[in-house]
């Protein structure tokens, strides 16, 4: 199943008097770029969370956001006395050095980060279980979002590949007309130099065939068809963005060769439209997982 790298999932859980909210989101990226933002009490589990998410997300610029709300009111805050004493000593030394008298040390100390902290910062097992279940639920919704977006991408790919094939078929008429123009032009130029009754018709046909073979694109036509069918086959299977990217490069190579052999304005117009469809395909492939 085709999946997009763009995804979003959200889940909530209530445990130990806390309402835990988890959000997981991602955008396209060549590699996995995973960023985790969570309260300090959950930091001890960061490596475990990162490992699980890396295995499942695979690619994309992803953010996991975890935050909680105390439903039972704020917990009692404790003063970090050793840290406060150390800061007090440093502040007093600075104040004495500059001759500052009656400094309000307490007000300054209470503004310093980490001086106040909740009394209980220990992650209990049941809270961790509630958190990891919320993460997995958010991921399930995130993955479902990716599948929905992937289905939209697949529909767009199918339409654009079919458009390329339709343009390929539309080339038949202008190619036949071009070959006729080439034949007439060569004969006209030849007759301007040599009287018609002096022209060796067999030799003329041989030279004409040689010239038209240099403009022949039947092999490119067949390879273009084969690559487009290969692209569609991969869409029907569990295609990856990288593999679709490789196939699109092959499609582009055949289209470019057709353009270089066109030697005709009408053919070039159709080739330009094929290139435009292919560029839109390549842009969307950047969003495929």
Question: Uncertain spans, ≥5 residues at pLDDT below 50?
Answer: none
Quickly give the structural class. Answer: alpha+beta
Shape: elongated
What is the chain-wise order of helices and strands?
Answer: EEEHEEHHEHHHHHH
Spell out the blueprint of helices and strands.
Elements (H helix, E strand, L loop, with lengths): L6 E9 L2 E10 L4 E6 L8 H12 L2 E11 L6 E3 L1 H18 L6 H6 L5 E3 L6 H46 L1 H22 L7 H15 L2 H19 L4 H20 L4 H21 L4
Parallel strand pairs: 3-4
Antiparallel strand pairs: 1-2, 2-4, 5-6
Helix pairs in contact: 4-7, 4-9, 7-8, 8-9
Describe, in plain words, how this protein is organized in 3D.
This protein folds into three domains: 7-73 and 124-147, 2-Layer Sandwich (Ribosomal Protein S5, domain 2), CATH 3.30.230; 77-118, no CATH class; 150-285, no CATH class. A hairpin with a 2-residue loop joins strand 1 and strand 2 (18-27). Helix 4 runs antiparallel to helix 9, helix 7 (218-236) runs antiparallel to helix 8 and helix 8 packs antiparallel against helix 9 (265-285). The protein is α+β, with helices and mostly antiparallel strands and 289 residues long. The protein has helices at residues 46-57, 81-98, 105-110, 125-170, 172-193, 201-215, 218-236, 241-260, 265-285; strands at 7-15, 18-27, 32-37, 60-70, 77-79, 116-118. Strands 1-2-4-3 form a four-stranded mixed beta sheet. A two-stranded antiparallel sheet has the order 5-6. The mean pLDDT is 84. The chain is built from nine helices and six strands; from the N terminus they run E-E-E-H-E-E-H-H-E-H-H-H-H-H-H.
């Amino acid at each position: 199943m085709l999946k997009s790298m763009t995804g979003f999932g959200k889940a909530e859980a209530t445990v130990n008097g806390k309402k835990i909210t988890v959000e997981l989101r991602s955008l396209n990226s060549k590699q996995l770029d995973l960023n985790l933002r969570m309260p300090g009490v959950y930091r001890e589990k960061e490596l475990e969370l990162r490992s699980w998410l890396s295995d499942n997300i695979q690619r994309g610029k992803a953010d996991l956001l975890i935050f909680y709300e105390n439903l039972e009111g704020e917990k009692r805050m404790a003063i970090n006395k050793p840290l406060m004493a150390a800061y007090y000593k440093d502040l007093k030394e600075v104040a004495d050095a500059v001759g500052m008298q009656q400094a309000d040390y307490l007000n300054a100390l209470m503004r310093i980060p980490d001086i106040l902290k909740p009394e209980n910062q220990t992650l209990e097992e049941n809270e961790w279980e509630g958190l990891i279940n919320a993460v997995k639920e958010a991921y399930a919704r995130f993955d479902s979002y990716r599948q929905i977006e992937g289905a939209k991408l697949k529909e767009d790919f199918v339409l654009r590949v079919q458009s390329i094939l339709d343009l390929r078929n539309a080339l038949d008429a202008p190619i036949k007309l071009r070959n006729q123009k080439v034949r007439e032009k060569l004969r006209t130029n030849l007759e301007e130099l040599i009287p018609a009754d002096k022209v060796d018709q067999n030799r003329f046909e041989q030279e004409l065939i040689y010239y038209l073979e240099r403009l022949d694109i039947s092999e490119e036509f067949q390879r273009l068809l084969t690559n487009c069918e290969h692209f569609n086959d991969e869409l029907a299977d569990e295609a990856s963005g990288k593999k679709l990217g490789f196939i699109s490069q092959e499609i582009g190579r055949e289209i470019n060769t057709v353009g270089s052999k066109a030697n005709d304005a009408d053919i070039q117009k159709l080739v330009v439209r094929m290139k435009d469809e292919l560029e839109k395909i390549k842009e969307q492939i950047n969003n495929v997982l």
